[in-house]
Amino acid sequence: GSGGGDSKAGAAPAEVRLGFFPNITHATALVGVEKGLYAKHLGSGTTLKTSTFNAGPAAIEAVFSGAVDATYVGPNPAINAWSKSKGKAIKIVAGAASGGVFLVVKPGITTPEQLKGKKIATPQLGNTQDVALRYWLTEKGLKADTKGGGDVHIVPQENSQTIQTFATGDIDGAWVPEPFASRLIKESGGKVLVDERDLWPNKQFVITHLIVRQEFLKEHPDTVRKLVEAHVEANDLIKSDPAGSARTANAALQKLTGKALKPEVLDSAFKNITFTDDPIASSLVTSAEHATKVGLLDQVDLNGIYDLKILNEVLAAKGQSPISDK
Amino acid sequence: MAADTHARQIAGLDALELAPARRAGLLTRAWAGTWPVALAVALVLAAWELVVLAGWWPEYVFAGPLTTLTELGHRLGEAEFYQALTVTLRRAVVGFALAIAVGLVVGALVSRIRPLRRAVGSLITGLQTMPSIAWFPLAILLFGLSESAILFVVVLGAAPSVANGLIAGVDYTPPILLRAGHMLGFRRLTLYRHVILPASLPSFLAGLKQGWAFAWRSLMAGELLVIIANRPSLGEQLHFARELADSPGLLATMIVILVIGILVDRLFGLADNALRRRWGLHQVTA
Amino acid sequence: MAADTHARQIAGLDALELAPARRAGLLTRAWAGTWPVALAVALVLAAWELVVLAGWWPEYVFAGPLTTLTELGHRLGEAEFYQALTVTLRRAVVGFALAIAVGLVVGALVSRIRPLRRAVGSLITGLQTMPSIAWFPLAILLFGLSESAILFVVVLGAAPSVANGLIAGVDYTPPILLRAGHMLGFRRLTLYRHVILPASLPSFLAGLKQGWAFAWRSLMAGELLVIIANRPSLGEQLHFARELADSPGLLATMIVILVIGILVDRLFGLADNALRRRWGLHQVTA
Amino acid sequence: MTAPLTEQAGGRVDGQQPAVRLQAVSKTYGQGKASLLALDNVALDVAPGEFVCLLGASGCGKSTLLSLVAGLDAPSAGRIDVDRRRIALMFQEPALFPWLTVSANVEMALRAKGLGKRERRARAAEYLEIVHLGGFGRKRPHELSGGMRQRVSLARALAQDADVLLMDEPFGALDAMTRDLLHDELERIWRERDLAVLFVTHNVREAVRLGDRVVLLSSRPGRVVEDFPVTLPRPRRTDSAEVAEQAGEITQRLRAEVMRHGAAPNRVPQEATPDGP
Amino acid sequence: MTAPLTEQAGGRVDGQQPAVRLQAVSKTYGQGKASLLALDNVALDVAPGEFVCLLGASGCGKSTLLSLVAGLDAPSAGRIDVDRRRIALMFQEPALFPWLTVSANVEMALRAKGLGKRERRARAAEYLEIVHLGGFGRKRPHELSGGMRQRVSLARALAQDADVLLMDEPFGALDAMTRDLLHDELERIWRERDLAVLFVTHNVREAVRLGDRVVLLSSRPGRVVEDFPVTLPRPRRTDSAEVAEQAGEITQRLRAEVMRHGAAPNRVPQEATPDGP
Ligand SMILES: Nc1ncnc2c1ncn2[C@@H]1O[C@H](COP(=O)(O)OP(=O)(O)OP(=O)(O)O)[C@@H](O)[C@H]1O
Ligand SMILES: Nc1ncnc2c1ncn2[C@@H]1O[C@H](COP(=O)(O)OP(=O)(O)OP(=O)(O)O)[C@@H](O)[C@H]1O
Ligand SMILES: [Mg+2]
Ligand SMILES: [Mg+2]
After folding, report:
1. Does A9 score more than 60 pLDDT?
2. Which chain E residue lies closest to D250 (C-alpha atoms)?
3. Is D97 in Cβ contact with C184 (below 8 Å)?
4. Neighboring chain D residues of B2 at a CB cutoff of 8 Å
5. Residue D266 alpha carbon, nearest atom of ligand 1
6. In whole angstroms, what is the distance from residue A74 CA to residue B50 CA?
7. Which of E213, E221, E271, E230 minimizes the C-alpha distance to E65?
8. What is the DSSP letter of B227?
9. Residue C265 in 3-state DSSP?
10. Which of A78, B282, E137, E262 has the fewest Cβ atoms within 10 angstroms?
11. Do residues A154 and A144 touch, judged by C-beta distance below 8 A?
12. Cis status, amide bond into D235, omega within 30 of 0
C-alpha cells in the first residue's frame, strides 16, 4: 500500500502522516507539533496528519501497512522493522534524543555485587534497556539468563508496573528510561546506581529517532526534507530554550494523555535527556552487537539502515557539520 | 384451630421464591430498589478506606476513595471527559450494532445448515478466544489508522458471542414449537422469523449481554490502536492512567467503566424482565 | 397415485430440520464430520494464498500460508513450544476451574436472594466489561509477582460469565418445574440442587463457554503480567510475536490459539449433545 | 348464598378437624382493568380420609383452587388451613423433569424421606408397576406418550406418601380401560393410607365412581354452587347403573349452571365483581 | 391379519382417491435393544370428507400415527400418501407460542394465507368466539387454564383452513358441557368444509358421536385391529341411547384387546417384534 503517496514521484503529497508517542523522549515531535513547525515547513500544499502510538509495535504495524509515512520510535522497533523486512521497509533519517536511561535501585544497594540474588526490572525482554542491563551485568561478572535465572533475576515488565512493584518491594531495581527513572527516584526513594550515559562514548546513545517508509522516501524526498527541516528546528528550539520547551512538551502531553507530568519529574527527566539530530549510529550498532552477544538477537546486518543524506544537507544549509552514519 | 397455616409453612425464603409479586406502592418499590445498592456502595467505600488507612501500600500505588473520587469529580467537571465518553460510547454502539448484525447472520446460517455447522461451528468459539491484540496487525492492514480498524476489532470480539447465543437458543428451542410452526406452514426463513428467533430470545439476549462485554473490552483495547488527536476516548484514558502508573486516574476510569457496565446491564435487565413477563416466567421467581 | 408423497413435501432443508437423525455407519458419519472441516480449511488456505499472491502487502507484513505453516512446523518441533503450551493450558484450566467455583457461588447467591441481586446483580456485568489490564495493578498489589496474580485476572475475567449464565438459567427455569420441585418437598439448597441447577444446565453451559473465552483472553493478557523464569507461555509468545512485528510468528500463534479454541468448543459440543439427547431435544434439530 | 354451603361443607366433618379448610377464599389474577376474579368467596372442608371430587366448567378455577391449597400461590382474600400434614399435588400437566429418567423422576418423590438409593429405586419400580409402566423406568419423559407421562406423574404423586393428595385431572389423557384399572389402584391406596383427596375431573362418572362428595364450582368467578354427597356403596363400577344415574343428576345441574352463564360460558366479565351479584 | 382390514378400509373409499392413505406403515423408535416398535404394518385410508376416529390404549401409537401422516416424522417402513392438500394437526399438548397473545397465536395460522393484519385479527376473533374464548384474545397462554389453552389450540387448527385435519385428543381437558358445544361446532365446520378428519380420542362415545368410522388400534406394537363403521344418522347426541349402545360394543372390543395384553398393558416387550407373532 502506498497510503498518502497519491501523486507521482517527486510531487508533493497532499498529506503526510507522522507518528510519535506521547512520551517525554519524543519531545522533539511534541514541541514540533505544538509549535506548528512541521506544518510551517510543509507549507500549504501538504497537510500534516499526526498519529500517536502507545508503543513501538503499533507504530511499526502502521509503517508496514502504509498507514503512516514517518514516525518517531526507539532503537528496538527500528532494528526490528529493518531486520523483519530484510532492509526494505524503513530508513532512519534523523536522530532525536539521547540518554535518559538509568539503573535505579533500592537505597541499600551501592555496588554491582550487591545485586546478586536481586530482582531487576527492564521494560521488555530484548529491548535496548534489557540488552544494556544484561551486557553491563556480564561485564561486571554477573550472570543472568534470558529466562530470569542466574545471579541476577531480570524481570521484564511494563514500566508502569515497575513503578508499582518497586514501591511494593517486589523488585529491587530497574533499568528504565525517563520519566520512569525520575519517578522511581522522586516517588519511591530510589537511588541511581548506573547512568547509562556513562557507559557510552561521549555519553551519548540513541533513545529516539525518526524513521521514514522507504517507499515514501523514494517518492517524496522533498517532503521528507521538509519534515527533517522541521525536526531540526524543533531540536534547535529545545536546545535554545529547554525550560520553555519542557513546558510546551508537557502541555502537549496533557492534551494527548489527559495527564501532565509533575513539575519535578518533568524537570529532572528533561535534564537527563539530550535532544540531538545525531542518531548516534555507533550506539545502535553496538547495542545490536551486545544483543547478539547476550543471545537475544540473531546476527543482523544494519548496513544501510541510515539515510542521513537529507539530514546532512539540511544541516549543511544551516552551516552545521555533517553527521556520520557509522 | 391448631393447624399450621400455610402462611407459616411457606415463610422465609420460600415465600419469596414462590409468592407472586404483589405490586407495592411506587415509593416502597423505589426504596426496595435503592437501599441494597446504596448499602453495597457504602460497604465497598468503607472497606476501601479501611485498606488505605491500614497503610499497606503508599497512596500513589493504591489511591484511597477520597483521592479517587476527587479525581473523578475533577474529570466530571471537564469537557474532555464528556468528549471521551461520547466518542467511546458511539464506537461501542456502532460496533455492537454491527456485531449483532454479523452475529445474527452467521448464527442463523450456522445453526441451520448442517455442513456449515460442522465446518465452522467450532471456529466461532475459536475466534472468540482470540485476544484482540492478535487482530491489530490485520485491522491496520485492512483499514489503516481509522475508526474502521477499531470497529473491526470490536466486531470480531463481539459477533461470536452473539452468534453463539443464537445457536444455543436455536438448539434449545422446544421441539414441540418447531413442530407447531412446521404445521402452520412455516419453513426455513419464516420458521426462523416466527418460531425459532422468538423462542431463542432469552438465550439470544444472554448472548447479547456477553457480546456487549466482549465488545466493550475489545473496544478498550482497540482504542489504543488509533489514537486520534483531539479525540480522547475512555480506552485511551484507561491505558494512559495505567501507563503512567496513575492510581487515582486508573481507579476513576475503572469506576466510570463499571458505572457504564451497570447501566447497560440495567437496560438488558429491562428487556429481560419484559421478556419474562411475556413468557409468564415472572410469576414464580419475581 | 398422483398425490404428492410426503417424502417430496418435506424435501430439502425441511427434511433436514425435521427428519429424525438416522444413525448411519461409522465411516459415513466420520466422513460427514470431516469433509466440511477439510473443505473449510482448504478454502481458507486457498483464499489466504491468493491474497498473498495478489501482492497487496509484502510478505514481511502479511506472511503467506507456506511461511506460516513452516514457522508453525518449526515450533512444533521444539520442546519450548510444548512447555509454553503446558504452562498456559495449566493456568487456563486452573483459572477456569476457580472461575467456575466462584461464578457458581456468586450466581447461586445473587439469583435467589433478592436484595443481593438488587445490590450487586448489575455489578456482575459491570465487572465483565472491565478490561483485564485494569486489574493488573490490583493483582500485583494483592499477589505480588506470582502465578496467583495471573489466576486472579483470569478468574475476574471468567467468573462473571459463569455467574451470568447461571442467573439467566435460573430466571428461565420453567415455573412448572419449580412448582413440582416445591411440591416434592425441595426447598432452598435442595431445590437448587435437584431442580434449578439441572434446569439451568443448558444456559449454564452456554455461560461456561463464554466464560472460557473470557478466561482465555484474560490469560493471554495476564501472562505478560508476570514473566516467570524458565516458564515460557503462549501469551508471551503472542505478545513477542507482535512486539517483534513477526508476521509468521504471530499467525502461527494465532493458529495455535484457534486450534485450542476449536478443540475446547468440541468438548463443550460433546457435553451439549449429551445434554440435548437427555432432554429429548436432539430429535428434531439433529 | 355461600353461607349455607359453608355449613353444609363444614357439617360433614363430624367434629373432627378437617385436613383442609378453605374459608371465604378469593383469588384475583392481575390488576386493574385486566384483573380476573378466578375464585370468589369459596368455602370448602376436606376431612381426613375423605375423597372429594371437584367439578366445574373449563376455566372455572379448579386448578387455581388446588394450587392455593398446595401453598404454591397465596389467596387474595380468605384463609386456608391445612392440618400439619404433607401435601402432594399432581399437576394438570405431567410436569416431569426432562433431564431425569422416568424412574429417577419417581425417585425424586422419595428423596425427601431420606431413603437409600437402592431402596428408592425399588420403590419407584413398584409405583411404576402400579401405573402399568413397569419396564419403562430407564426411558426419558420425551420417549413416552402423553398418557404414559401422565401416569408417571401419578406414580410420582403417589410415591410422595402424603396425607393430603391433590389431583388435577389425573386420568384425562387415559383410555377407559387403563382409567378403570387406575381407579381401583387409587381407591386401594386411598383406603390403605387414609388419604384426604381433592380430585379435579371433567368426567362426572369418574367423580361419582371415586368421591365421597362431589363439589360443583360455578364459572368466573368460581364459587361452590352445590355439594353432592355420594353414598353409593363401594366398590363401585364406572359403568354401573347407579353411578350412571347419579352422574346424570349431577350433569343436569352442571348443565344448568353452565347455561346460566349463556352460550359462551368463558367470556371475560366486563368488570371484576368482587362480591358477586 | 391386517390384509382384510386394509381392504375393509380401502373399500370405504368408493373409487374416490383417498385424502390420506397409509400402506404397511411401521415405525420403530430408537435402536438396538432399547428400540420400540410403535406402529406395525398399519394400513389406513381416509376419504376426502370422511371423519375417522382412532381409539386405542394409552401408548399404543396414536400420536405417532398422526405425526407420521403430518410429515413431522418419517415411517421406518411403508408408505404414506397424502393427497395434495393442506394438513392441520392439533397436538396432544396445546403447543402454543408462549411469547404471543392468544389472538396472535391463532393469527399465526392465518399468516400463511397472506391475509392483512386487520383481517387476520378479525378472523382470529371469530375462531376464538367459536371455541368460547371471545374476549381472551389479549391474554397470554400462561394466563389461561389448561382447558382454555386446549381450545386456543383448537381455534388455531381450525383457522388453518386445511383439507385434512388431524386431532390428537382435542377435547381431553374439557368438561362435558363445553365438549358438547364444541362437538357441534366441529361437526358444522367439517360439513361446511368437507374436511377429512382423523380424530384421536379416549372417549368412545365421543368417537361414536362424531365419526363415520371408528378405528381401533392394538397396543405395542400398534396395529389396526378393528374398523367399526358408524351409520347412525346425524345429528347425533353424545348422551343418546344409540350412541351409548354402539359405544358399549366398541368398549367391549377395546376391553378384550387390552386384556389380551395382560393386566399391565404397557409393559415393554422383551424384544421388538418387527413382523408380529
Ligand atoms: N397465572 C394466571 N394469570 C392470570 N390468570 C390466570 C392464571 N391462571 C389462571 N388464570 C385464570 O383463572 C381462571 C381459572 O383458571 P384455572 O386454571 O384455575 O381453571 P380450571 O378450572 O383449572 O380450568 P381447566 O378445567 O380448563 O383446567 C381462568 O379464567 C384463567 O384464565
Ligand atoms: N420420541 C420417542 N422416542 C421413543 N419412543 C417414543 C417416542 N414417542 C413415542 N414413543 C413410544 O411410542 C409408543 C407410542 O407412543 P404414542 O405417543 O404414539 O402413543 P399414544 O397412542 O399417543 O398414547 P397416549 O394415548 O398415551 O397419548 C409409546 O410406547 C412411546 O413410549
Ligand atoms: Mg385446570
Ligand atoms: Mg398420544
Report:
1. no
2. E176
3. no
4. 17
5. 29
6. 43
7. E221
8. E
9. helix
10. E262
11. yes
12. yes
Ligand 1 proximity of D38 Cβ (cutoff 6 Å): yes
Residue in A67, A164, A258 nearest the CB of B140 = A67
Q: Containing H/E element for A45? A: none
Specify the fold of E46-74+163-277.
Rossmann fold (3.40.50)
Q: Which of E56, E57, E132 sits opposite D265 (nearest CB)?
A: E132
Task: Choose the closest CB to C19 out of E21, E74, E79.
Answer: E74
What does each C-alpha distance from D52 to D1, D200, D206, D230 come to in angstroms? 21, 9, 12, 10
Centre of ligand 1 to C-alpha D61, Å, is: 5
Write the DSSP assignment of D194-213 as a string of letters.
Answer: T-EEEEE-S-HHHHHHH-SE
What whole-number distance in Å separates Cα of residue E61 and Cα of residue C51?
Answer: 59
Question: What element of type H or E holds E81?
Answer: strand E77-82
Retrieve residue C274's grid coordinates: 449429551
- Give the model confidence (pLDDT) of E41-52 as tens digits: 999 999 999 999
Locate the DSSP E strands across E134-253: 164-168, 196-200, 213-217, 224-229
Query: Binning pLDDT at 50, 70 and 90, where does residue B25 land?
Result: low
Kindly list the domain boundaries of chain D, sorted by start residue.
Answer: 46-74+163-277, 95-162
Torsion of CA D105, D111, D115, D116, to 10 degrees: 70
ipTM of the complex: 0.82
- Grid look-up 384399572 returns D181
For the ranges A147-151, A154-158, A270-274, which has the lowest average pLDDT?
Answer: A147-151
Cβ contact, residue pair E112, B184, below 8 Å: yes
> Which among C5, C7, C23 has CB closest to E31?
C23
Q: In this predicted structure, which of A206-215, B94-103, B229-238, E261-270 has the lowest mean pLDDT?
A: E261-270
Which residues touch A49 (CB under 8 Å, ≥6 apart)? A4, A15, A16, A17, A18
For the question of whether the overall pTM of this predicted structure is more than 0.95, the answer is no
CATH H-level, domain C57-279: superfamily: MetI-like (1.10.3720.10)
CB D63 within 8 A of CB D202: no
Q: Which cell is C90 given?
A: 495449566
Please answer yes or no on whether D91 and C180 come within 8 Å at the CB atom.
Answer: yes
Q: Residue D54: left if φ>0, alpha if ψ -120 to 50, beta else—which one?
A: beta
Which ligand is closest in space to the CA of residue E222?
2
The contacts of residue A103 (CB under 8 Å, 6+ apart) are A120, A133, A136, A173, A174, A175, A192, A193, A194, A196
Coil vs helix vs strand at A273: strand
The nearest CA of chain B is from the CA of D163 a distance in Å of 14
CA of E21 to the centre of ligand 2 (A): 21
Q: How far is the CA of E219 from the centre of ligand 4 (A)?
A: 12
Q: What is the pLDDT of residues A173-201, one digit of tens each?
A: 999 988 888 889 988 889 999 998 888 88
How many angstroms separate the alpha carbon of residue E155 from the centre of ligand 1? 18
Q: Give residue E84's pLDDT band: very low, low, confident or very high (50, 70, 90).
A: low
Cell numbers for C115: 436484595
Q: Whose CA is nearest to atom 7 of ligand 2?
A: D143
Residue C106 phi/psi, 5-degree rounding, is -60, -45
Residue whose Cα lies nearest atom 3 of ligand 2: it is: D143
Sites in chain D below the pLDDT cut of 50: 1-13, 262-277
Best B153, B243, B246, B251 member to test A by mutation, with max A CBs in 10 Å, is B243
Sequence-separated (6 or more) residues with CB below 8 Å from residue E262: none
pLDDT (mean) for A195-221: 89
Amino acid at position B117, single letter: R
DSSP A26: G
Q: What residues contact B80, with CB distance under 8 A and at least 6 apart?
A: A258, B232
Confidence of residue C43 (pLDDT cuts 50, 70, 90): confident
